[in-house]
Amino acid sequence: MVTRVTAEFETPESAEMALKKIRENVRGVYSTNFVYNRESDKAERLRGKDIFTILPTALHPTSNFLTMVMESPASIDVIPEPSRSRKTSVFIVCDGNGTDDISSILTSAGGSNIYIPNRQNI
C-alpha cells in the first residue's frame, strides 16, 4: 500500500538532511519533497549587510535636484515576521513497510507533527 508521510521542520537544511538519510537508509521510498517559504531567503541574505537609501535633498538651479545617499545596517526586521519563517513541510511517498523507519529518522533529525495515515501520529 502506498503511503504519504508528512512532517514539519524548523529549517530547510534540517529537512534536506533528513530526506537524504531516508533515501539512503529506507527501502521502498518512491519520492521525497519539501516546501518552504522562499521569501525567508531574502531575510537570511540581509544579515550583516548594509542598506543604501537615496534621498532627494534640495533643488539645484542647473540639475533641478541634489540627492543624498544614506547608509544604514540592514536588519531582518525589514521583512515582517510571517515572511521570515523558515518552517519547512516534508512529503515522503513510500510503501507501507518503511513507515516506522521513516518516522524514527524524521524524529531524530528534529521533525515534528509527523503524520502517517492509518496510524497513531506523533
Low-confidence stretches: none
Total beta-strand segments? 6
Cα gyration radius (Å): 23 Å
Mean pLDDT: 80
- Profile the largest sheet: 4 strands, antiparallel
Number of H- or I-type helical stretches: 4
The structure class reads alpha+beta
Annotated CATH topology of the domain at 1-37 and 86-122: Alpha-Beta Plaits
The helix fraction, in percent, is: 25-40%
Overall body shape: rod-shaped
- The separation of the N and C termini measures 21 Å
The spatial strand order of the largest sheet comes to 2-5-1-6
Describe this structure as you would to a colleague:
The chain has a domain at about 1-35 and about 85-120: Alpha-Beta Plaits, CATH 3.30.70.120. It has four helices and six strands; from the N terminus they run E-H-E-H-E-E-H-E-H-E. Helix 1 packs antiparallel against helix 4 (about 100-110). A four-stranded antiparallel sheet has the order 2-5-1-6, covered by helices on one side. The protein is rod-shaped, with a radius of gyration of 23 Å. With about 120 residues, the protein is α+β, with helices and mostly antiparallel strands. The longest helix has 14 residues, at about 10-25.
How would you describe this structure in keywords?
alpha+beta, 122 residues, Alpha-Beta Plaits, two-stranded antiparallel sheet, 4-stranded antiparallel beta sheet, 4 helices
